[in-house]
Design brief:
heterodimer, A: 238 residues, alpha/beta, Rossmann fold, 6-stranded mixed sheet, 9 helices, B: 2 domains, 6-stranded parallel barrel
Chain lengths: 238, 307
């Protein structure tokens, strides 16, 4: 269980997150939604330890992890799929999946993760994770990487962005399968209605505050009242 | 009989465990040949004045290797070696060269290897060159290789050069002249530590129609080491040239890149890319989110970069 208590964060004199209180129960599928600039990505980075909050407390299974760095949090069971995956010259797809799994993997094992995200493994397993890969390919590799970690909490920052050539339904299947197999919690930052559809709980963030927590049906009316500023908002990209 | 120091160095440089009994090779140690063997298709002939070797590869020779490692295991040895490779038309071979210096003494050891390649029509060669320095003496380990290539029509030359440890100072000079349809691919990997200095200079003339050159340099400069990358590509015909210098700097390392591309023909297409900088912060962050420490992430990035 992850608990965020009174999390505040400011940057450049602007309050990005204001007193966030949120609990993510075990094995839950949570979607964080809200307009651009509402603080969603910042919240995910605070959970992963990439950003340090100004104040507040983060507990993972009752243990205070507020002071832990990125590495310690990763080892404690938190995974984070970046919104914009990082490129590496010379590091192969297999290297990355092997590092993620934390153990020696056979090529067949590593390929399994790629197959899950709809990639023909033999075409990709020895490729470098560099600019020769498209944004969509990198995004799917990023998802395969966090799947290989099998942690109790996995954060996805806008996983649907750039998944243009792969069917959206496959992405949904990946999340459902992952949720079922790992029995961990999944927290997804998304604007996509179809991702909201499969959530146990939807958290609406606006202007750095939690506006509403509930089912999709409960939260959706509140969502429509906002200026989204995003052309993909609500059911785009289907 | 080789002693252990020579054996280890030989293995590091060329992959050979001992003096082989078959294949084409010459093992040079402290200026003398420790073993030489020619084959039916590859003839290794010492130059009359004792300054090096002529290596003759018969036309259409396939699937053969030539090993010509040069070792220095005494301090104070300073040598200049001239090896000329005459590659016959249509031959396809791999040449494994390289130099290892083990210096436990206080005098500098210097190897200057000047290799010339005359590559016949349609021939295809892969040239592997590894440079290593070791030993804890105060004498410097200095390796200055030169590679000069003349590639005939449709010849293909790939040169892979690696220097990852122990060489105090190196100046590498490479040049190539390419005729119609000839291709050259040069891949260089360098890591410098301490007070080391490494300089690379490529000078390529794309004289032939449809000729192409690709120069790829990846380097890491740590501690107080310094590197200079110079590349010069002249496009003198309808041709394609691409040079790419990627460097990671750490600590007080310094890397300079001086690219020069000149199109002397309207159909010459030439590109240079250079990127120098420290390891990107988001790369470290990403690997740390996989559970690596910052140091482990750094090592992983460097290993991949120089792989």
């Amino acid at each position: 269980m992850l608990e965020l208590k009174n999390i505040c964060f400011s940057a450049d004199g602007k309050e990005i997150l204001k007193n966030i209180n949120l609990t993510i129960d075990d094995a839950k599928f949570i979607v964080i939604t809200g307009p651009n600039g509402s603080g969603k990505s910042t919240l995910a980075k605070i959970i992963a330890g990439i950003i340090t909050p100004d104040s507040g407390q983060i507990l993972l299974d009752g243990q205070d992890i507020t002071e832990l760095g990125i590495t310690e949090r990763a080892r404690a069971g938190i995974s984070f799929a970046f919104q914009q995956p990082v490129r590496f010259k010379g590091v192969t797809v297999k290297d990355l999946i092997t590092l993620a799994s934390g153990q020696e993997l056979s090529t067949a094992d590593a390929c399994q993760y790629l197959a899950e995200v709809g990639m023909c493994a033999k075409d990709y397993i020895d490729r470098e994770v560099n600019s020769s890969l498209s944004g969509g390919e990198l995004k799917r590799i990023e998802i395969a990487t966090v799947m290989a970690r099998k942690t109790k909490l996995t954060l996805f920052d806008e996983p649907e962005a750039g998944i243009d050539l792969w069917s959206f339904q496959n992405l949904i299947n990946v999340f459902e399968k992952m949720h079922e197999e790992i029995q961990g919690s999944i927290m997804i930052i998304s604007h996509q209605e179809r991702i909201l559809d499969i959530a146990d709980q939807v958290v609406l963030l606006s202007a750095g505050e939690v506006k509403q927590i509930g089912t999709k049906e409960e939260v959706l009316p509140g969502l429509f009242g906002m200026e989204t500023g995003c052309r993909y908002f609500m059911g785009g990209n289907k | 009989m080789l002693n252990d120091i020579v054996k280890n160095l030989l293995q590091e440089v060329s992959g050979m465990m001992n003096i082989p009994t078959t294949g084409a090779f010459n093992i040079r140690n402290n200026g003398k040949s420790e073993g030489r063997h020619s084959t039916e298709n590859i003839d290794i002939v010492p130059k009359a004045d004792g300054t090096g070797l002529d290596i003759y590869v018969k036309p259409f020779t396939k699937n053969e290797d030539v090993h010509i490692p040069a070792l220095i295991t005494q301090d104070g040895v300073k040598e200049v070696v001239y090896n000329d490779f005459h590659i016959g038309e249509g031959a396809e071979i791999t040449i494994i060269a390289g130099c290892g210096i083990h210096n436990c003494g206080c005098d500098d050891s210097v190897h200057e290897g000047i290799h010339r390649f005359f590559v016949g029509k349609n021939a295809k060669i892969v040239y592997l060159e590894k440079h290593i320095g070791e030993g804890d003496g105060n004498g410097k380990r200095i390796i200055n290789p030169q590679t000069h290539i003349e590639a005939e029509e449709n010849a293909y030359v790939e040169m892979d050069t690696v220097q990852l440890k122990g060489v105090d100072s190196t100046k590498r000079i490479s040049s190539a002249v390419l005729k119609d349809g000839a291709t050259i691919v040069i891949k260089e990997k360098i890591m410098t530590h301490g007070e080391q200095y490494a300089e690379t200079s490529f000078d390529v003339n794309l004289d032939g129609t449809g000729s192409s050159a690709k120069l790829i340099s990846r380097s890491v400069a740590r501690d107080n080491s310094r590197q200079l990358f110079r590349s010069k590509i002249n496009g003198n015909a309808e041709c394609y040239g691409h040079s790419e210098c990627d460097a990671i700097i750490m600590d007080n390392g310094v890397v300079a890149a001086e690219p020069e591309i000149t199109a002397n023909h309207v159909d010459a297409s030439l590109i240079h890319e250079a990127a120098i900088g420290k390891i990107a912060g988001d790369q470290l962050t990403k690997l740390m989110t996989l559970g690596l420490t910052e140091k482990e992430a750094e090592a992983q990035i460097i290993n991949g970069f120089l792989k």
